[in-house]
Amino acid sequence: MDREQVRRWEGQCIEEQAPACTAACPLHVDARALAVAVAAGDFKKGLALLANAAPLPRILAHICDHPCQSTCRRRDAGDAVGVGLLERACAEFGGPAPAIRRQTVNHKKVAVVGGGLSGVSAAIRLAIRGYAVSVFEARPRLLERMRSLDGHVLPASAIDSDLAVLLKLGVTIHCDALISRHAGPLGLDAIVADYEAVYLATGPELFDESSLALERTAHGRLRIDPLTLATSQPKMFAGGAQRYCPAAYSPVNSVADGNYAAVSIDRFLQGASLTANRDNQGPYPSRLFVNTGGIAPAPAVPLGRNAQGYTKEQARLEAGRCFPCHCLECVKVCPYLEEYGSHPKSYVRQIYNNESIVMGMRKANRMINSCALCGLCAAVCPESLSMADVCLDARQGMVRTGKMPPSTHDFALRDMAFSQSDAFAMARHQPGFATSQAAFLPGCQLSASSPGHVASCYEHLQKTQPGGVGLILGCCGAPARWAGNEAKFQEAARALDAAWNSLGRPRLITACSSCFKSLRDHLPQIPIEPLWPHIDVTQLPAPPPGIVETRLAIHDPCSTRGMSEVEGSARGLLHRLGVEPQELNAPGLTTCCGYGGLMLFANPAVADKTVERRAAQSDADYVTYCAMCRDRFAHQGKRATHILDLVFGQDGNDPAARPDPGFSLRQQNRARLKDTLLRQLWGETEKPMEPSRNVLIPEQLRPLLEKRMILEQDIQRTIDSAEQNGDIIEDQLTGRRLASLRVACVTYWVEYSDQDGAYLVHDAYSHRMEMR
Asked: Parallel, antiparallel, or unpaired for β 621-624 and 640-642?
């Protein structure tokens, strides 16, 4: 996989973007996680989350001006979440402050001038990093401004608790230490000379007469780099009130400046870049998309009379109003993405790492091959990220480099090979015609599911289409493309192109959405049209009233997404039949039946979840124009009809009760269709080889064989081969025989016995692997 393309895919997924509240906070407090913790009653965890971002968590919890609340998405459905009150609850009910461990002492000295929120925050951060920090405060105590606040707003205990960490970290504190322009130990020149770095965090008025030649703004404040807080003076950084006017005082901005300064001073003293990787420092607009549609409005939990903060229960209720904010639009609609418990950016990383392995287990193979490649994720993603593109690219790379386990798609590819073989594939002009103005391409799946509908459609087109209508049977190669096997796909495309050329390059009419998509995307030289507008209902018997009066919901196959001409023409045919179906989803948001992308073969459990979810969207019978979708619904027990059941289903049977034919009958239907058409229309015959003896398969065994993807033909071949070469294990007591046959990477095992001149099958199983 191309690394740059992988990075672009990762960048498209916004799930890991910070929610709006965190992005708006200068400290980037994880308010979302804090709300989740409080809602669960875990105030200790909430306090730890706050302390992770704020060096003075208890103080800030009481006085924060919470800019996060102005961007809270809860405002779209009620009041913003009271993050400030939740932080206060964490400070009051969260127990002892989280332990802080100092890193290895490096003996480099840093001076912090000013003992307010900004200076103390910087001192704590730098001390944790191992620096020898000295704080110089002109007043008798640190945080004097905070101590002047009403005790109900900010209790003295919160201040003392937060300041205690300074002593634990070994910070040296100098109070009543006014730094001035005069010479001496408390002169600013001396401080700058004695320390490797200095952080100015005082009121701007204290340095108006400084002897240092510091650049200033027109308002007399220092010129400070807004990103790094560096000044024009070497070794000196400044923040807090140094860059804000008094009217703009913000506790959270002051603490944030202390954090920013600590990062810059640490980098400065290590000789690292001051600007690298700081794009999102401070508030920034979040890219995280949050769908608030359908969220019920909820007002904020009110405070009790004269209360300064929430009780525990009030805090839990208020925290429960948080959604919390996530995108996950694709995960919400896709059982495959939901199955692996994360989100696309994480999956892209796993897939890239999986493909990059030279030796060892590739644990993401199944994830890669389980995607339906339907593209629904891109349709709902705000950034249009397609996991189908990611997984298909990975599959193609794994096939190309020999890393794809051959067993993964073996069954589907051999089934495709059958459709390309002489057993099914052919191209003929209409009987009595030497040229074809059009040609009917029914597709291999409709031929496998409803061969009678194919014959009826072809008969109808011969009557309604002038100039001769040819017939092409075969496969467009979609299974090979889904498998990532581009060579086999191109082989199928060349065969289809050759069949088209052999008929004189007519326009093609197809009943298969996958064929329509394959030809449109990969064989643009072939003019392709959907079958549905070409059905002339005036030339057909009227469908029984019971059929058109049944409440039907329309399911669009996922391969038609974005093909309005296919979706619209199918609805047009239903309208002509007198059917007005219920819509299951908004345009372009149809879901997969669980077969697309060969999901059914790679991960049957997820495929079942996929079709189950789709089947549960309505209690109406479904109508669709994809044979495989109809059969998948039928297999799941959902009443479903193919649109051609409504067109040609006048035999009195309930079309929605037609069972899934299963894998074995699907191949047999294709072969019989070709043989029937050749005999009836062209007077030709291709008599299939008769088996040496009949094989009897009990009905109770058939569902198990279907689940194991073992065809009746496979059982017949295995028994015939064993009987011919004598490679049989026989139980002398029961008379049962065990035969095996290896075909490509599959080995079949069949347990059977001789019963009145036929072979009675008792069990069959297989394993698909390739030993190296």
From this structure: parallel
- Give yes or no for a contact between 747 and 741, defined as CB atoms under 8 angstroms apart: yes
CA 396 to chain centre: 20
Confidence class for position 218, pLDDT limits 50, 70, 90: low
Q: What is the C-alpha to C-alpha distance for residues 290 and 18, in angstroms, rounded to an integer?
A: 11
d(CA 527, CA 508): 6
Residues 27-49 as b/e (b if ≥16 CB within 10 A, e otherwise) read bbbbbbbbbbbbbeebbebbbbb
Helix 83-93 and helix 31-39: axis angle, to 10°? Answer: 60
DSSP three-state, residue 443? coil
Express each pLDDT in 129-170 by its tens digit: 999 999 999 999 999 999 999 999 999 999 999 999 999 999
List phi, psi (to 5°) of 653: -80, 155
- Closest Cα partner for 248 from 426, 71, 26, 30? 26
Does this model's pTM top 0.90? Answer: no
Q: Are 751 and 760 in contact (CB under 8 A)?
A: no
Q: Are 768 and 706 in contact (CB under 8 A)?
A: no
Q: How many percent of the chain have pLDDT more than 90?
A: 75
Residue 385's closest CA among 755, 771, 758, 15? 15
Quickly tell me which residue has 């209790």 as its tokens. 155
Sheet with 758-768: list strands edge to edge. Answer: 695-696, 758-768, 746-755, 737-743, 728-730
DSSP conformation letters of 668-728: HHHHHHHHHHHHHHSS---PPPPPSS-EE--GGGHHHHHHTT--HHHHHHHHHHHHHHT-E
In this structure, the chain runs to a length of 772
Task: Say if residues 531 and 488 touch (Cβ distance below 8 Å).
Answer: no
Q: What is the DSSP letter of 537?
A: G
- The gap from C-alpha 762 to its chain's centroid, in whole angstroms, comes to 43
Q: What is the DSSP string of 250-313?
A: -HHHHHHHHHHHHHHHHHHHHT--SSTT-TT-S----------TTPPPBPPPPPPTT-SS--HH
- The closest of 168, 169, 165, 193 to 179, measured between CA atoms, is 193
Q: How far apart are CA 438 and CA 725, in angstroms?
A: 49
Whether 98 and 56 have beta carbons less than 8 Å apart is answered as no
Reported as half-sphere exposure (CB side, CA atoms, 13 A), residue 240 has a value of 27
Amino acid identity of residue 331, one-letter, is V
Q: How far apart are CA 586 and CA 388, in angstroms?
A: 20
Q: CB neighbours (10 Å) of residue 249?
A: 14
- Residue 207 gets which letter from DSSP? G
The neighbour count for residue 343, using CB atoms within 10 Å, is 19
In sequence order, the 6+-apart residues with CB closer than 8 A to the CB of 764 are: 701, 705, 708, 710, 714, 715, 718, 748, 749, 750, 751
Q: Which two tokens stand for residue 374?
A: 């339907």
C-alpha distances out from residue 108 to 168, 194, 198, Å: 18, 11, 12
Q: What amino acid is encoded at 452 in this protein?
A: G
Q: What tens digit of pLDDT does each residue of 41-80 get?
A: 999 999 999 999 999 999 999 999 999 999 999 999 999 9
Poorest-pLDDT segment among 37-51, 90-104, 667-681 = 90-104
Name the packing angle between helices 486-502 and 410-420 (round to 10°): 20
Annotate 118-147 with b (16+ C-beta within 10 A) or e (fewer): bbbbbbbbbbbbbbbbbbbbbbeebbeebe
Sheet holding 132-136, edge to edge: 172-174, 132-136, 109-113, 197-200, 236-238
Tell which phi-psi region holds residue 382, choosing left (phi > 0), alpha (psi between -120 and 50) or beta. Answer: alpha
- Rg value, the chain, Cα: 36
